[in-house]
Amino acid sequence: MPIPIDSRKKPATVKVHVTSGAGVDITWSDAHASHYDFAYLREECPCATCNDERIRKSAVPRRGAHFISGAADV
Which residues of the chain have pLDDT under 50? Predict the structure, then answer.
């Protein structure tokens, strides 16, 4: 038997702010409003594309990072 959907968890409106890069605004059917930044959504997304992006960004040395040559991984 299917689980009934809680109507409060159903979005009433969704606005994706692609041009400004502001993120996503959702107004839920119970009138609660939520805002999610694109960076937050990317960080929390479990898909393979987003995971590859996180790995790629973590592999790029940050400005001011110092590396010790000849050091062994532990």
Answer: none
Sequence-separated contacts (24+) of 8-17 with Cβ below 8 Å: 8/32
- Model pLDDT, residue 16: 96
Amino acid at 8: R
Are 53 and 67 in contact, with CB atoms under 8 Å apart? no
What is the separation of C-alpha 52 from the centre of its chain, rounded to a whole number of angstroms? 13
- How many Å from the N-terminal Cα to the C-terminal Cα in the chain? 51
Rounded to whole angstroms, the Cα distance separating 35 from 15 reads 10
CA distances to 2, 4, 16, 19, 47 from 38, in Å: 32, 30, 10, 12, 15
Closest C-alpha to 55, from 66, 69, 42, 73: 42
Residue 16 carries which side chain, given as an amino acid letter?
V
Q: Which residue carries 């689980």 as its tokens?
A: 3
